[in-house]
Amino acid sequence: MTPSYAPAPQLLKLRFFDLDVRIRSDDEAYLDLLARMYRLFRVDGTSPAVRPAVEYAVWTRPDNPWGRPVLVLDGEAHPLDDPGALAPYVYQDIVCDVLARVRSHVLLHAGAVARDGQGILLAGDSLHGKTTLVLALVRRGFAFLSDETAALGRADRRVHPFPRSLSLRSGTLERAGFPEVTGGAPSWAGKRLLDIEDIRPGSLGEPVPVGHVVILSDPEEDGEEGSERELGVLVDRLDEGLLTAVAQIEGVSGVRAEAARGYPLLRLRAARRTWAFSQIEALCQARGTWIMDVLAGPTGAPDFAAPARLEAIPHRQAVVELLRRFQGGHRSAVLHELGGRPTRLFVELAAIVGQAECHRLYVGPLEEMAELAGGLT
């Protein structure tokens, strides 16, 4: 049972679709990042609650009942021995928990833009240029919906805005065609934080049907597999048993655990990555482990040197790619409503994007990618 502690804290109120969130802290510095990242999600005290709010707390003072920094997630305390780890821990754990509790929308790790009443989902591994491509399309007149979390309404089957602040690496704005947006932005983990309205005022869009699904892929993945290549599988939980089982897959070597986006990342090398991944999928399904994303290469980043090209892919294949990028993992309220069965989530996701045309975009120079993706509407 969590001890009682109420030191007249600072309070941040946010709303994520059907979920109201209340975050308290005895040190306002720990709320500043979340307040900046989710400025457009803030609500005031007069806004009626959608359903009972989820409560989080960040206690840092040494006189708290734990005698060390602690994060309380909806009544469950998580003390930390290292005070320096509190800020990233607060950000990752609260956000991951919030995304898992949203019921009204299926949330995907993907970008989204819109034009002429149609939405385009842009899904791909990390470092495949989603944010830069989203910004390049916004510069071409598309409305911004999200650069990282695509929110698909379960009731209206539309993609909705998820206007979290963009977390931008050095040079991203310049490459995307916004060199004039400089200075004054706060930073987090070496990246600059900017709302889309700071970059292109008036560009935030409205909910629209999904007209196109675009899967960003490394052109090197299109050839024959021979020599060993890196593969990263982002999962919602990872134990020694799964690591051992993956290491025993034929042709797999160098199995190790890392971390990315607040989740465990399973890294390995395999000569036949497609086959190896199918075996990993089966192992995860048997253990109830959810695959969040798939990363290729030692850093997950293509070199963008080959010409960009676009090709049609089957609808089912596109839905499988989207499902791998589902946010929330085994804790997801959406998945629990569906009896914990990924097959039912697949069916629902397929229905939401049922009228969409599906494509694979082999990444290359940014302007070529923007020309191909922008020509879809």
Averaging pLDDT over every residue, what do you get? 86
- Main sheet: strand order: 1-2-3-4-5
Which descriptor suits the 3D outline?
Answer: globular
Q: Structural class given helices, strands, pairing?
A: alpha+beta
Query: Ends: how far apart?
Result: 54 Å
Give a description of the structure.
With 377 residues, this protein is of the alpha+beta class. It has 3 domains: 92 residues, no CATH class; 102 residues, no CATH class; 78 residues, MTH889-like domain (Alpha-Beta Plaits, 2-Layer Sandwich). 27% of the residues lie in helices and 31% in strands. It contains 11 helices and 20 strands. The strands form 4 sheets. Strands 1-2-3-4-5 form a 5-stranded mixed sheet, with helices on one face. It has a 5-stranded mixed barrel with strand order 6-7-14-10-9. Helix 3 crosses helix 11 and helix 8 crosses helix 10. The protein starts with 9 loop residues before the first strand and ends with a helix.
Task: Identify the notable features of this structure and list them briefly.
377 residues, 20 strands, five-stranded mixed β-sheet, Alpha-Beta Plaits, alpha+beta, 27% helix, 3 domains, five-stranded mixed barrel
Write the layout of secondary structure elements.
Elements: E1 10-16, E2 19-25, H1 29-37, E3 54-59, E4 70-73, E5 76-79, H2 86-101, E6 105-115, E7 118-124, H3 130-139, E8 143-146, E9 149-153, E10 158-160, E11 166-168, H4 172-176, E12 187-188, E13 191-194, H5 196-199, E14 208-217, E15 229-235, H6 240-247, E16 252-260, E17 263-270, H7 273-287, E18 291-296, E19 309-312, H8 315-323, H9 333-337, H10 342-352, E20 357-362, H11 366-374
Parallel strand pairs: 2-3, 7-14, 14-20
Antiparallel strand pairs: 1-2, 3-4, 4-5, 6-7, 6-8, 6-9, 9-10, 10-14, 11-13, 12-13, 15-17, 15-18, 16-17, 19-20
